[in-house]
Amino acid sequence: MNDGEIQIEGGAPASSEESMPEGIVLNPHAQVCLQHLLRVWLGFERDLSKVPLLRRIDLGTYTAEDHQVFLRNLRQQVIEGSRWITRTASSFDRNHSEIRSTIISHAVDEHRDYEMLEKDYVASGGQLEDILNMEKNIGSEALHGFLMHRSSRTNPIDLLGAMWIIEGLGEKMAHSWAERIQELTGLTEDSTRFMTYHGHNDSEHMQRFYATLDSVCVNEEAIKSIVKTAKVVARLYRLQLEEVEYDVQ
Amino acid sequence: MSVYITSTGSFLPGPPIAVDQVENVLGAVHGKPSSLRVQIQKANMIETRHYAIDEQQQTTHSNTEMATNAAEQCLDRAFITREKVGMLAVASTQGDLPAPGMASMVQAELELPEIEILTTHGICSSSIMALKAAWNSLRLEEHEAALVLSSELASRLLKKQRYEAATTSTFAAKRIDFSTEFLRWMLSDGAGALLLQNKPAPKGLSLRIDWIRGFSHAHALPTCMSVGSAGRPDDARTWQDYDTYAQAEQDGALLLRQDVRLLDNLMRMGVDGYLRLVEEGVSKPSEVDHFLCHYSSHHFRNKILEMLHTAGVGIPEERWWTNLYTRGNTGAASLFIMLDEFLRTDEVSVKVGDKVLCFVPESGRFNTTYLQLTVVNE
Fold it and tell me: Which long-range contacts (CB under 8 A, 24 or more apart) does B236-239 make?
């Protein structure tokens, strides 16, 4: 553990404190939506502790082999992630061109992330062909199927709920898991670059998220659909992590 | 049936101990000053605290005595005679005796005849469990008045002899064992008392109990703060599974541990419970005039709090109040000691009608408890 730096009662170290971006005042519907999204996230995050593979990070028994299993099972979702994001962009009509721009630029940023993940896998001691030959696990199938379905609908604002969960997890990987995994496994940072990378520009991502939420979440119906999609994605993402396949096929 | 806190009391043993004196009281393990003390004290920002042990680590007040002293002060300030007290609920992480329950021992000291008793076991939130049970007893009209006490004597677990005896423990094996030392520089001793009645006090301010709620997350999260195991992931034995207690002590199974890595979950689950109460319409953030939190605001300054503000449910920092920095972190006793001072301090103006939201999180296995009080007069 990081004995040299105390983090107590959840307080972030002073140096990493990020102040609230100035001038963001959400409309009342977006505020309520954010309250619900926070709860969906916190429940998701707590329940990740029950996933056997991730429990070992908490308990300190996670191994380099576990890390390979994790990466092997994550890759398909990352590949498919760029597909549903680009489809989401194309499903927004001309009245939502601002959102479309935001999503397109996000997709450009991340659509080849899986290549980084493959390199991490090799750095962790895995064989490249093993990760390349890996199929989607049962949970990844369900998650991807759901996201492609939702993103094919016109103006799928509910996918903001999906982004909330998936971005949140990226941040958690970067801030809570990457360093801990290195400590536990003796692997170097070469093995966790995909995880670490997702911690960059967090506050910028949040600002973009708030701005989008404020513009699309303007009634009860929007709150409901965003929150429901967040809940489904949280559940299916956890399923994906519960259904990790250990054996290389 | 409304129930009111009509009197409070507290007891803090001995003089206030400053940060640089703490190790003189708890003792330097093997005569060597701790390399973690300053760092941990700096992080918790507690300036003074109290101990019921002296500089030779001899107990000056038992846990029962401290609880009794707080109770006596509370009863002295009350407008009813002690014969009216029908129930005594006592909370502590560890009474003087593992058995019987601490309430029996305190009842004897207070000489309260033939009352109903309850001892709650846990860590910080055990006080809220006791309070809730007593509140419910009054709501069911089984009693007119109940005395609720919380008392902690953590220093007996934290004195140098405990660590010196743990010769085969992780503490002895590692140069620095953060999880074993963390609470040593955090916790201290004290007791608090609340008198509950079915009507407000005839004079002065009373606190009506609006609601008490708790959410425990032990079903999902690992143990974070504990006594009783050696703190090794692959060793499932608890202290009574060793052949002798001496072996359990040597192995460090009697040391108090905190898995600091898991602590982030406490704040997260605290926020989750708060949002749940907001969602259910139980708690209305805009109506909260005072927020009394078992932990201090500086521990919470992070992104999630900012998100609460963005989501329109943050509680402005000027409404937070605590005496943690001067009275110490007394675990289960903290909130009662805080309420006792809150009603008397000049630091904050308390008016009739004010809503007081209290939050007591317990890191043990993540139990988060909340209550709301309304300031009333008769």
Answer: none
Task: State if pTM tops 0.90.
Answer: yes
User: What is the dihedral angle through the alpha carbons of B209, B215, B216, B220, rounded to the nearest 10 degrees?
Assistant: -170
Structure token pair of residue B173 = 């094996």
**What mean pLDDT is predicted for residues A15-38?**
77
Q: Does A36 touch chain B (CB under 8 A)?
A: yes
Helix (H) or strand (E) holding B214: strand B206-216
Kindly identify which residue of chain A lies nearest to residue B308, measuring between CA atoms.
Answer: A35
User: For residue range B164-188, what is the model confidence (pLDDT) as tens digits?
Assistant: 999 999 999 987 889 999 999 999 9
Residue range A156-174, pLDDT digits in tens: 999 999 999 999 998 889 8
Burial of A228 per CB tally in 10 Å (0-12, 13-18, 19+): middle
The domain spans of chain A are 25-242
| Confidence category of residue B299, pLDDT binned at 50, 70, 90 | low
Interface test with A, best of B302, B309, B324, B365 (most A CBs within 10 A): B302
> Model confidence over B17-67: pLDDT tens digits?
999 999 999 999 999 999 999 999 998 899 999 999 999 999 999 999 999
What CATH number did the domain enclosing B192 receive?
3.40.47.10
Cβ atoms of B119 and B101 closer than 8 Å: yes
Give yes or no: residues B187 and B214 share one domain: no
Task: Please state whether beta strands B85-92 and B145-152 pair in parallel, antiparallel, or not at all (unpaired).
Answer: parallel
Are the Cβ atoms of A34 and B264 closer than 8 angstroms? no
Q: Are A58 and B261 a contacting pair at CB < 8 A?
A: yes
Q: Is the separation of the CB atoms in B237 and B185 below 8 Å?
A: no
ipTM of the shown complex: 0.90
Residue with tokens 């054996």: A247
* Angstroms from B122 CA to nearest CA on chain A: 19
Counting one residue from chain A and one from chain B, the pairs whose CB atoms sit within 8 A come to: 119
For residue A167, give how far its alpha carbon lies from the nearest alpha carbon of chain B (Å).
15
Number of structural domains found in chain B: 2
Contacts of A204 in chain B (CB under 8 A): none
Whether A43 and chain B come into contact, CB under 8 Å, resolves to yes
Segment A187-193 mean pLDDT: 94
Q: Mark out the alpha helices in B242-320 (DSSP H runs).
A: 245-250, 264-279, 303-310
Among chain B residues, CA nearest to A30: B311
CB contact under 8 A, B308 and A10: no
Residue entry with tokens 């289960």: B332
Asked if the model's pLDDT at residue A228 lies above 90, the reply is: yes
What's the rounded Cα separation, in Å, for the pair A103 and A89? 6
Q: Domain A25-242 carries which CATH code?
A: 1.20.910.10
User: How far is residue B339's CA from residue B191's CA, in Å, rounded to a whole number?
Assistant: 12
Q: Is A85 left (phi over 0), alpha (psi -120 to 50) or beta?
A: alpha
pLDDT higher than 80, residue A18: no
Q: Do A12 and B268 touch (CB under 8 A)?
A: no
Tell whether omega for the bond before A13 is within 30 degrees of 0, i.e. cis.
no
- pLDDT at residue number A205: 81
What is the model's pLDDT at position B264? 87
| Structure tokens, B249 | 């002590």
B42 and B143 together in one domain: yes
